[in-house]
Design a protein that fits this description.
heterodimer; A: alpha/beta; Elongation Factor Tu (Ef-tu), domain 3; Rossmann fold; 2 domains; seven-stranded antiparallel beta sheet; seven-stranded mixed beta sheet; 5 helices; 16 strands; globular; B: alpha/beta; TIM Barrel; four-stranded antiparallel beta sheet; 9 helices; about 20% strand
Chain lengths: ~270, ~300
């Protein structure tokens, strides 16, 4: 059976390294920015769930000294890519402060993408900045004829990414959950997931959210692909820094063996 | 005219003085197509042990001021898989870049088994002996115990006729003593230095950031320590030295060269920019052109020390 992705098999291609100009960077929620970069090379090749390493190069010693992984949040025909940046620490704060015209060093596209079998119903479950890959995937997959739900959870309304922009990028407004009920439904985004009738679930977000979904997938028998996050050094498999534990107990590199895994491929220890 | 960057060492010619450091370039193939590997001086593989090692739990890496901390834990595929799966690619794809296999073990016999197990294979020049990993129990044992280091180097010398380079730890009171022990027991060269032990604490969780609790510090933050220890090692013995530690520019590399290094390795900088090593090579060349120096060899050990002050 053929497998649909946003692009034909490019796994074997080497990533591209280039300096990219910032086209725009606008605040899209509290501590959250939508960063657009001019990167035709990466835009032309990126697949759903792949990521880029973004940094400033060798002259830059302040955080982020090491490049940081970001999910490709959008790619446009004109060569733009979009990244969802949330300021957590000094490094991501600097990326949030990027201005139009500044240049960054990009490496990508990297990693294994999400894969969809033709005709499946798709539920994307996004926790916080885990929204990023689905801005790209949901609209793209809908245009290919997939039936896609996008469930998106944040702690509070002020953290919810610009709904108008989500609709513009994906074609539909997301189903929003906030833990305090300040926007959308009250509760955890995973509460909104309905799997009756068969569905492929794609998830990205905090590890506790992924763990809860993995437990449910094992119990209820649905297909779950998760995008994991771990501290990363190089993005291309050389440093072996970004490991997660496989179901067989061995370490898997999030950068090259992931970041997207079937949940059954991984071990989900209690937090 | 382009300056002469070639260096004749260990019985071969290095086309350029910059190598990729062990642990930062995998087994070479990971960078294929991304950087011009075969135009570099060479590379040093991820450490190879007799048996495969699974490595440490995450987090394994984190950023530190001007550098990083890592505790990978020597994760590697082991001797057998290295020989059958990794080495053939290096043999078939690198014609000009020189390859060293980094070797690690818990006991002398384990180091010797890796060396004897690989010695008949093709695709590499020699060995870089890791006696300086701070991230596994006993990882620096051979590098901080004079008698143990002498025994290890002597044994490996008897095991192979290929070049044996010893990668020293910075965590000793006088690196010159260890440099001389390597020389007296038959080593062909030294790599100075491996990482400094360090620790990073998450003040919110009140726990270590690194899964292994402590790790090794690398990157630009350690450049001056690396230059100093390279100078100490190079002046304590007559072995050729490969300088390592925080190099991210041609000027950084030339500090090591003036301190006495014949070659340098670029490590952490490759994570910042995969093109770092190639950039360092180009910048060395540009510097020589600008300074009117015909050959890099003229600068090796060319440090000019101040005259002692008159009493």
């Amino acid at each position: 059976m053929s497998i649909a992705t946003s692009h034909t098999a490019s796994d074997i291609l080497s990533p591209i390294r280039h300096r990219a100009a910032v086209i725009s960077n606008r605040q899209a929620a509290t501590d959250t920015w939508w960063l657009e970069l001019d990167s035709p090379e990466i835009a032309g090749r990126a697949e759903w769930g792949q990521f880029v390493m973004i940094g400033f190069g060798l002259d830059h010693l302040a955080p982020p000294f090491l490049p940081r992984p970001f999910s490709v949040g959008w790619r446009a025909e004109d060569g733009r890519i979009g990244l969802l940046v949330r300021a957590f620490g000094a490094g991501s704060r600097r990326l949030a402060e990027l201005r139009a015209g500044e240049r960054v060093l990009l490496l990508g596209p990297l990693g294994r993408p999400y894969r969809l079998e033709p005709g499946v119903r798709v539920a994307c479950v996004a926790g916080g900045v885990g929204l990023a890959p689905f801005l790209f995937l949901a609209g793209d997959a809908r245009r290919q004829g997939f039936d896609v739900d996008l469930l998106y959870g944040e702690l509070t309304a002020d953290k919810v990414f610009d709904i108008g922009l989500i609709e513009e990028l994906t074609g539909e407004p997301p189903i929003v959950w906030t833990e305090d009920g300040s926007l959308g439904s009250r509760g955890r985004v995973t509460d909104g997931l309905r799997v009756e009738g068969g569905v492929t679930v794609l998830a990205c977000g905090p590890t506790p959210m992924l763990r809860a979904l993995a437990a449910r997938a094992a119990r209820e028998g649905f297909d779950l692909q998760v995008s994991v996050e771990e501290h990363m050094g190089c993005g291309v498999g050389t440093c072996q820094g970004c490991v997660v534990q496989g179901a067989d107990g061995r370490w898997r590199k999030a950068c090259t063996q992931g970041p997207v895994f079937y949940s059954s491929e991984l071990t989900w220890p209690p937090s | 005219m382009a300056p002469e960057l070639r260096q004749s060492l260990f019985g071969v010619e290095f086309q350029a003085p910059v190598l990729l450091a062990s642990g930062t370039c995998g087994y070479g193939r990971e960078y294929a197509g991304l950087i011009p590997l075969d135009e570099l001086g060479g590379l040093v593989t991820k450490a190879v042990s007799v048996e495969p090692r699974s490595g440490n739990p995450p987090h394994r890496v984190a950023e530190t001021p001007g550098g990083m901390i890592n505790a990978i834990g020597l994760e590697n595929v082991g001797l057998e898989a290295f020989a059958s799966e990794k080495l053939p690619w290096l043999r078939d794809n690198l014609a000009r870049a020189q390859v060293f296999v980094n070797v690690v073990g818990r006991k002398v016999e384990e180091y010797a088994a890796v060396v004897s197990g690989l010695d008949g294979e093709e695709g590499f020049l020699g060995y870089e002996i890791n006696v300086s990993c701070p991230n596994v129990e006993g990882g620096t044992m051979f590098g901080t115990d004079e008698a143990a280091l002498a025994e290890l180097v002597g044994r490996l010398r008897r095991e192979t006729e290929r070049p044996v380079i010893v990668k020293l730890t910075p965590n000793v009171p006088d690196i010159g003593i260890y440099a001389r022990i390597c020389e007296e027991n038959g080593a062909d060269g030294l790599s100075t230095i491996n990482t400094f032990p360090g620790m990073l604490i998450d003040i919110h969780g009140r726990k270590p950031v690194i899964g292994n609790v402590s790790g090794g510090i690398s990157g630009p933050a350690i450049l001056p320590m690396g230059v100093y220890l390279t100078w100490r090692a190079a002046t304590a013995c007559s072995l050729p030295v490969i300088g390592i530690g925080g190099i991210r520019s041609g000027e950084d590399a030339l500090q090591y060269i003036l301190a006495g290094a014949h070659l340098v390795q670029v490590g952490t900088a490759s994570f910042v920019d995969p093109a770092a090593a190639a950039t360092v090579q180009e910048e060395i060349s540009s510097h020589l052109v600008g300074a009117g120096i015909a050959s890099l060899s003229e600068l090796v050990g060319g440090l000019r020390l101040p005259e002692p002050a008159q009493a």
